[in-house]
Amino acid sequence: MNSHGAIYYYYAYALAKNGQIKQTMDAFDKAIAISPHEPMIYLLRTEVFEGNNMLKESTSDYRRALELILKN
Hints:
Blueprint: H1 3-17, H2 21-34, H3 39-51, H4 55-71
Helix pairs in contact: 1-2, 2-3, 3-4
């Protein structure tokens, strides 16, 4: 993972732990923009989606993560 992408990944994780969902999603968007081929970003975001009953979004991210994992 690109180091800048990793920063936003861990930042999103910390924000999610504090219940700051809007900021969490913004950080995930930045992490994905920097490291779009990193499945771990999508996998962590699925947890946030699931925790907020956003199942359609969660399913989409699981699929994207699986595609990236199988591609590598």
